[in-house]
Amino acid sequence: MMTVEGGSQAGVQVDYRSLVVVLLSPLAFALVFASWTIFAVLGVELKQVLHFGEVQFALLLAMPMLTGALAAMPMAALARRAGGRRVMIGSLLLICPFLWAIAYSDAYLHFLLAGAGLGLGAGSLAAGLVYVASLCPRRHAGLALGLYGAGMLGAGLTYFLLPLISQAYGWPMAPKLYLLPVLLVALLLWVFAEDAPRKVSLSAEALDDLEPSPEYVRVCRRWLPPPAVCRLALYYSFFYGAFVALALWLPGYLAVQYQLSLKLAALWALAFTLPGGVGQIVGGALADRRDFRDLRWWVSACVMVCLFLLSYPDFTMQIHGVHGDLSLHFSMPLYGFTALLAVMGLAMGIGKGSLMCLLYREHGDDMVRSGGLALALGGLFAAVLPLMFVFGNEWIGIRTAGFMFLYAALAVCMLAMLWDSARAQAGTRHQRD
């Protein structure tokens, strides 16, 4: 039997239902994420067929992220009321008609609307996060949430299968073949999984009954997360949003930058997504044993060094020396580029896994608002990044401008972390005095 204890120290006895959730929820996550990355591979081919430009391609990549970000918190709240299993199943079924519609679309607007519909699958991500957090054993919460977040490996499924399917049967067959595993996982969740029992704890609604307050105060308390949650969600949004945006953008970038075929470019992009999924599990397991606050500086510094090196465009420098002119030429080789991507993907995965565990540890009684806000902010950041990558190409004229933008965004995030750390230390000294 499953037992649930109230309060922030809630624990769950491991039984078959917890194991079913831990196994099936990442599969649902992977399929939703794989459906989002369809355009990362097919979009390169569709650009040639439909003759749309780089900005339109970026909007196509960003649309699932945008609608997904808008749907994250409402779907998380619905999961608390109706049950995570029901919302996950409903979200998986909801994206099926849009997958089918992609196969029969013949205009850019049709693909854009289908991408917006696929973004509603974020309900499965948010509901799955609340679902896993409510059933996982607390002492292994980081590992369980890391395994769930490793569903981003679904991008690797798209990278590997879609070029083969498109080459063998044509691109319209690719989204159709996604329908079978999506329906199968929805069926398995319906048959084997069960909704978690509600915890008995003093929630925001219960506090409203105990403490009379004006209506607007009750509304703010109910819907607005506390500042500590907002700061953690902001940190998470960089790692999540940057990882998602790069997973969408890399196949097209590699194909153009290194003159690769779409199939080879997608396979090289696996060097980023696979370490990211592994890092998510490692980060969650590490966070079960130590606080992310000790780890965040190393992770952020590693990502910053990688972004700094990736930001360098190809260039030639001529130096007027004493004995004549010296020419210096730099061009990032493909092997060096993918090695940096692998290190950065691993570090981003560790950051995501450990941060989500920290959110659970400190705000586990309110994962609807904390986890939902983290996914929403990350989705918004991921939706902005493809446009920033395109604007860097078109306006600045440098293909690596996207990495420069990520470098600047991480620098701002690290300054916010530094300010937060200094403020916490000042508060500690004030309490001692």
Q: Which fold does the CATH topology refer to?
A: Growth Hormone, Chain: A
Strand % is under 5%
Helix and strand pattern? HHHHHHHHHHHHHHEEHHH
Q: What's the pLDDT, averaged over the residues?
A: 79
Q: Which CATH architecture is right? A: Up-down Bundle
> Helical region count?
17
Q: Report the count of strand segments.
A: 2
Give the domain tally.
1
| DSSP helix fraction | over 70%
Rounded to the nearest angstrom, the distance between the terminal CA atoms is: 49 Å
Can you tell me the CATH superfamily? MFS general substrate transporter like domains
* Order of adjacent strands in the largest pleated sheet: 1-2
Task: Describe the largest sheet.
Answer: 2 strands, antiparallel
What's the CATH class, please? Mainly Alpha
Low-pLDDT parts are: 1-14, 200-213, 215-220
Radius of gyration: 22 Å
What is the molecular shape? Answer: globular
Which structural class should the secondary elements be placed in? mainly alpha
Question: Could you characterize what this model shows?
Answer:
- This protein has a single domain, classed as Growth Hormone, Chain: A, CATH 1.20.1250.20.
- The protein has a two-stranded antiparallel ribbon with strand order 1-2.
- The chain has 433 residues and is mainly alpha-helical.
Put the structure in a nutshell.
Its main location: membrane. The protein contains 17 helices and two strands.
